[in-house]
Automatic annotation (TrEMBL):
Residues 1012-1247 form the P-type ATPase C-terminal domain. Residues 15-29 have a biased composition (Basic residues). The keyword Zinc-finger does not apply. Residues 1-10 have a biased composition (Basic and acidic residues). GO terms for cellular component: endoplasmic reticulum membrane; phospholipid-translocating ATPase complex; plasma membrane. PROSITE patterns: ATPASE_E1_E2. Residues 618-628 have a biased composition (Low complexity). Belongs to the cation transport ATPase (P-type) (TC 3.A.3) family. Type IV subfamily. Residues 47-102 form the P-type ATPase N-terminal domain. This is Phospholipid-transporting ATPase. Its cofactor is Mg(2+).
């Protein structure tokens, strides 16, 4: 592969010229990456990688120069800020100004400054984080020094060669070219990307696997063509083009992503493909989600009405002023304001000027501080939700996360909940329960009794349970829990109690745990009958192996048993590791020897060489149909297609079928060693709990997976010892095919065999029994029996998987392989072609058996669903499980009631749903619909009828639904019914549903963190949803709704005081209240108590809200904030302002007090009335409520006293000097302070008393019913 550097440089130059000459459409969608070391001495403009982003990370929004203009520009995106700045600037116009211009700017400047300081602090924190990351070290190859030198992350460029060491974090997206692992593997941990702590395998690019010497960057002469940067973590496509024109495919298993951690690999070398902000990790880093809540949308409508009221008041005042001026005729009033030219103004022009002046005077009607106050209250609410220890899960050391900061009140208004089943309602701990092999069912009664009595022991001395006296005790794996717990524990240390010995002890235990391997999951008690068959089959095969006899003497049912457990063992992507050296791959000497021997025999035959010219490529396969589908099992490497096709021509295949001769016994075979148990305990790193459950089930029958390499799998079988299967292809699982397959070369028969496992709905359709012979009759009988057992498993709520196999002849495999290679080398539509290639292989299968796996319900799920339903929430479950399983789980979790009638919609065509949707429109039933019928029901012509039926049903259960169907159902209900929706799930297949809903909740479960990363809120368990909605959701909605209404009332009441004065001053825009009080009344004097109430107030206790879920309906019906409430508050505000205005007016009538001596008591009375009004509305009093009210009163009097004492000639001829001091010595002032608030608040108090009395009556009735139901069941 090596070439001289000069030749490589010429190749690169010709390639560059070619790309400059031809700007094709394909090139606009791809990226060409060259090695930078070839251009170290060239000019900067000659480096073809110069246009790509560097690796410097900058997440800050501002610089020193751009901060002020950019921040102001962002703040002016909010219409309210633009409005208030306009009012402040309008006050600088002399003709229309109402206050001192500088003083009018104070509130706006204060609000903008507070927001700017907050943004600046957040940006500074981002800057410090960026600086720390950019100055991390890594090893980059230097051509001048001919070695790897340390450089900062920010200095790394696309095209650099990087050396990575164990436990090192990747600085960029790197294409793996070399690994110190003898199998050219690199293990990475992707917890920072998707939350999955189980190790992932990544493999060196195919053409670099066979290098015997250490990778030398100077000999690299290839060009990489790959896709443009994108945020899809599960896809990477491209080619590496060598000097001789050969192209090798690049896949996601060749790419190491930024932020991942290298594990179990001493060193690895790669070339940077994406750097900096073009890496997949950075493209996925969207931060918190921001949405507009329903309450905020309703508030904006009322803000609009406030604008209308403001304009009406200003127009009324302008007309009044014009009429007042008109009555004087030619005689102008003494205090008439002249025009700038010194001439008299006409009544019309004066009215226009007065209209603008009144906008300035009445500006407080639009609450400038409301928006800032809402943000502060929401942040405080999120903080207190996080502090709720009842939402903390000790087992996983995880807590509720709030990722959307501005929709907390929506939690109190939910109407529909859409939930996933697996991992959301269930634990996603897959426990092997039963199986059927060759038409015979094995109930595993002993294992069922173990699970019934099982209680996991959480102690340092935890040991595996014994399998019972009927079986010899096997060496079991170390008792280990989910490996996810470890990293989550590290990432949430802020929630842990430091200094606790119990916590330290627990952490030491959890640090040893592996995903999906709790004792409940892995300590399986085998069925005695099936175990006898396995031992019998193994002993017969051992005998025939030593005597090279044919397999036709073994009964077909035993052969099926043997293949069944082989399929369970090898048809997966489980990684084997050793607990003595955590996460270290188990090395097997025999595997290495076989691998070396295989590589030495790679000679190209003439028959295949012609075909392979120009289309040599890797024969591994990933069957993701689109970037939105997540591959649940990683694609493992396979031997080169060249080697595979060569062997097809070199080797002699025996006839097809099971009954074949064994291959000769290896010369180094030792029966004693083969039958002896492996002293090294193993543990399994599985990507899904289903895979782990099946591998542990096979191990219980002494069929153990002991090693996995990219091109071979080693298993240990009873009596046969260790066998190595050559792994030719792995066809990964995807949500469309709903199955996975492995293509292996059987070590005993040398046959190429396909083992397939998947959903029974697809596998059973792929089974094709031969016709017209005894074997066909037997297969049809097995097929019939297996289907019956599958129905029984589903009725018991078990997850079912079918296991099948297929033996390929040499011609069949060669023909499929050639088509498969064409699909892999295709440029356009490669995913679709690979998908079709997998479909062609997975046909005419031989059914081996089926498994039933139990996914246990989470704690508290039935009670949570019952409480949510009593709260008036409609719950729909959308699952991909088969119908019978989903129905059984629905009954177990009380979603379906045994007493209600169930409508089951299973249609084969679009005509059928029309027939049975209509008759049930009037019934309240339970609805169960499968995926195919759901696809028809979501059609435009049927969606309205489907919704009509669904609304009339108490529960809805959608089975076999795809991720796209889930999101379509949520969107349909949300848009058509105009309701508030919440979607909750735990897996990547729930992401689209979570994002479509008004509120998305992710469960931080065992399927990674994709759902959490896409959600607005994240919960450790489903049962915590009850308190999040019924308690915190209710509180957040009630607090904010009342606070918003209070803001509107307070501002309207204060503005109305000035409006009434206009009737006594000729509508001149004058105010009897001092300008300082006008400006700072809402900003300082009355701001703090409402923030405390909006954060801490509780209309009902948490215990009562959970005992009486029906109280949640008040939020669903928006009873705290209805449109009429806004107008009721406006009316009340105008009434209270009349009282606060006219009581001082009549008290000081015919007196000689000046304007401010009369106006200051009005301000004081308004403050007392507003604070007392807040006190009436407050349901829960704390010391902070009392303190905030006392602080507001003291602050007002201190400012008034100091201001009046220090301003002798502020507003001539009116003078505020010593006004408050004189009032404090006047008994009339104290009398007004007592009478006025009482008179103003009497109607409000009476109305509130009646409302509270009615609420308490309802609560008492509910409590009485609950007590009666408890004592008289």
């Amino acid at each position: 592969m090596a070439r001289e550097i000069g030749e490589a440089g010429d190749a690169k130059s010709s390639t560059i010229k070619k790309h400059k000459r031809k700007k094709t459409k394909k090139e606009s969608k791809t990226r060409i990456v060259h090695a930078n070391i070839l251009y170290d001495h060239a000019k900067g403009g000659d480096n073809p990688n110069r246009h790509y982003a560097n690796n410097k990370i900058k997440t800050t929004k501002y610089t020193l120069l751009s901060f002020i203009p950019k921040n102001l520009f962002e703040q002016f995106h909010r219409f309210a800020n633009v409005y208030f700045v306009f009012i402040a600037l309008l006050n600088f116009v002399p003709v229309v100004n109402a206050f001192q211009p500088e003083l009018a700017l104070a509130p706006v400047v204060f609000i903008l400054s507070v927001t700017a300081i907050k943004d600046l602090w957040e940006d500074y924190r981002r800057h410090r984080s960026d600086k720390e990351i950019n100055h991390l070290d890594c090893l980059v190859y230097s051509r001048s020094e001919r070695c790897y030198v340390e450089q900062y992350w920010k200095e790394v460029r696309v095209g650099d060669f990087i050396r990575l060491r164990c436990n090192e974090i990747l600085p960029a997206d790197v294409l793996l070219l070399s690994s110190s692992d003898p199998d050219r593997l690199c293990h990475i941990e992707t917890a920072t990307l998707d939350g999955e702590t189980n190790l992932k395998q990544r493999q060196v690019v195919r053409s670099f696997i066979d290098l015997d010497a250490e990778f030398d960057p100077l000999k690299y002469n290839s060009v990489i063509e790959c896709e443009k940067p994108n945020n899809d973590l599960n896809r990477f496509r491209g080619y590496i083009i060598h000097r001789n024109g050969r192209r090798d495919g690049l896949y996601k298993d060749n790419l190491l992503l930024r932020g991942c951690t290298i594990r179990n690999t001493e060193e690895a070398v790669g070339i940077v493909i994406y750097a900096g902000h073009e890496t997949k990790a950075m493209l996925n880093n969207n931060g918190p989600r921001y949405k507009r809540s329903k309450l905020e949308r309703q508030m904006n409508v009322d803000v609009f009405w406030c604008v209308i009221i403001l304009l009406v008041m200003c127009l009324f005042s302008a007309i009044g002023h014009g009429l007042w001026m008109y009555q004087y005729g030619d005689k102008r009033p003494v205090f008439d304001v002249l025009s700038p030219e010194g001439t008299d103004l006409s009544p019309v022009v004066s009215a226009i000027y007065l209209f603008l002046t009144m906008i300035i005077v009445f500006q407080v009607l639009i609450p400038i501080s409301l928006f800032v106050s809402i943000e502060i209250v929401k942040i405080c609410q999120v903080f207190f939700i996080h502090q709720d220890m009842e939402l903390y899960d000790e087992e996983t050391d995880s807590h509720l996360q709030c990722r959307a900061l501005n929709i907390t009140e929506d939690l109190g208004q939910m109407q529909y909940i859409f939930s996933d089943k697996t991992g959301t309602l269930t634990e996603n701990k897959m426990v092997f329960r039963r199986c059927t092999v060759a038409g015979v069912e094995y109930s595993h009664d002993a294992n069922a009794r173990r699970l019934a009595m099982y209680q996991e022991v959480d102690s340092e001395e935890e040991e595996c349970l014994s399998h019972g006296g009927t079986l010899p005790r096997r060496e079991s794996l170390c008792s280990q829990h989910s490996g996810k717990v470890v990293l989550r524990s590290q990432s949430t240390k802020s929630h842990r109690r430091t200094g606790s010995r119990a916590e330290a002890k627990r952490a030491s235990i959890l640090s040893k745990h592996t995903a999906f391997s709790s004792p409940m999951e892995k300590d399986i008690t085998p069925d005695p009958q099936l175990l006898d068959k396995v031992n019998d089959c193994g002993s017969q095969m051992e005998f025939m192996r030593f005597h090279s006899q044919l397999l036709n003497q073994i009964p077909p049912d035993l052969c099926d048993v043997f293949d069944f457990f082989i399929a369970l063992t090898i048809c997966n992507t489980v990684v084997v590791s050793s607990p003595n050296q955590p996460r270290q791959k188990v090395s097997i000497t025999l595997q290495k020897k076989l691998r070396q021997k295989r590589f030495r025999t790679r000679n190209v035959m003439k028959s295949s060489k012609k075909y392979l010219d120009g289309c040599k490529d890797s024969s591994s396969l990933t069957t993701n149909r689109s970037s939105s589908q997540r591959a649940c099992s990683s694609m493992l490497s396979s031997p080169s297609a060249e080697s595979t096709l060569t062997k097809l021509n070199e080797e002699h295949f025996p006839g097809q079928g099971l009954q074949q001769a064994f291959s000769p016994v290896p010369p180094n075979y030792d029966q004693a060693k083969a039958s002896a148990p492996d002293k090294c305990e193993l543990r399994y790193e599985a990507e899904s709990p289903d895979e782990a459950a099946l591998v542990y089930a096979a191990r219980a029958y002494k069929c153990s997976l002991v090693g996995r390499l990219p091109d071979q799998v080693t298993v240990e079988l009873p009596h046969l010892g260790k066998l190595t299967f050559e792994l030719l292809h792995t066809l990964g699982f995807d949500s469309t095919r709903k199955r996975m397959s492995v293509v292996v070369r059987h070590p005993l028969t040398e046959q190429i065999t396909v083992y397939t496992k998947g959903a029974d709905s697809v596998i059973m359709d792929l089974v094709r029994p031969p016709s017209g012979n005894e074997l066909g009759k037997r297969q049809r009988k097995i097929l019939f029996k297996t289907q019956n057992y599958l129905n029984l498993y589903a009725a018991d709520g078990l997850r079912t998987l079918c296991i099948a196999k297929k033996v390929l002849s040499k011609e069949e495999y060669a023909g499929w392989l050639r088509c498969h290679l064409e699909a892999e080398t295709a440029i356009q539509g490669r995913e679709e072609l690979l998908f079709e290639s997998a479909l062609r292989l997975e046909t005419d299968l031989h059914l081996l058996g089926a498994t039933g796996i139990e996914d246990r319900l989470q704690d508290g799920v039935p009670e949570t669903i019952a409480a949510l339903r009593r709260a008036g929430l409609q719950i729909w479950v959308l699952t991909g499980d088969k119908q019978e399983t989903a129905i059984n789980i629905a009954y177990a979790c009380k979603l379906l009631d045994p007493e209600e009638e169930i409508i089951t919609l299973n249609a084969e065509s679009q005509v059928q749903p029309k027939l049975f949707i209509l008759p049930f429109l009037v019934h309240r039933l339970g609805l169960v619909i499968d995926g195919r019928t759901l696809a028809y029901a979501l059609d435009k012509s049927l969606e309205d009828k489907f919704l009509a039926v669904a609304r009339s049903c108490r529960s809805v259960l959608c089975c076999r639904s795809t991720p796209l169907q889930k999101s379509m159902v949520v969107k349909l209900v949300r848009n058509k019914l105009k309701v508030m929706t919440l979607a909750i799930g735990d897996g990547a297949n729930d992401v689209s549903m979570i994002q479509v809903a008004d509120v998305g909740v992710g469960i931080s479960g065992q399927e990674g963190m994709q759902a959490v990363m896409a959600s607005d809120f994240a919960l450790p368990r489903f049962q915590y949803l009850q308190k999040l909605l019924l308690v915190h959701g209710h509180w957040c909605y009630s607090r904010l709704a009342n606070m918003i209404l209070y803001f509107f009332y307070k501002n309207a009441m204060f503005v109305a005081l000035i409006f009434w004065y206009q009737f006594y001053c000729g509508f001149s825009g004058s105010a009897m209240i001092d300008q300082w009080y006008l400006i700072f009344f809402n900003l300082m004097f009355s701001a703090f108590p409402q923030l405390i109430t909006g954060t801490l107030d509780k209309d009902v206790s948490a215990e009562t809200l959970q005992e009486l879920p029906q109280l949640y309906m008040s939020g669903q019906n928006s009873e705290e904030y209805k449109p009429y409430m806004f107008w009721m508050n406006m009316i009340d505000a105008f009434y209270q302002s009349l009282i606060c205005f006219f009581i001082p007016y009549f008290a000081y009538a015919d007196s000689n007090v000046d304007l401010f001596t009369w106006g200051t008591p009005i301000t004081t009375l308004a403050l007392f009335t507003i604070l007392l009004h807040l006190g009436i509305e407050t349901k829960t009093w704390t010391w902070m409520n009392w303190t905030s009210i006392a602080f507001s009163i003291v602050l007002f009097f201190m400012v008034a006293l100091c201001y009046n004492a220090s301003c002798p000639t502020c507003y001539s001829p009116s003078n505020p000097y010593w006004t408050m001091e004189r009032l404090l010595g006047d008994p009339l002032f104290y009398l007004m302070c007592i009478i006025t608030p009482i008179a103003a608040l009497l109607p409000r108090y009476a109305l509130l008393h009646l409302t509270v009395l009615r609420t308490l009556t309802i609560v008492f009735m509910y409590e009485s019913v609950c007590k009666y139901s408890f004592w008289h069941p």
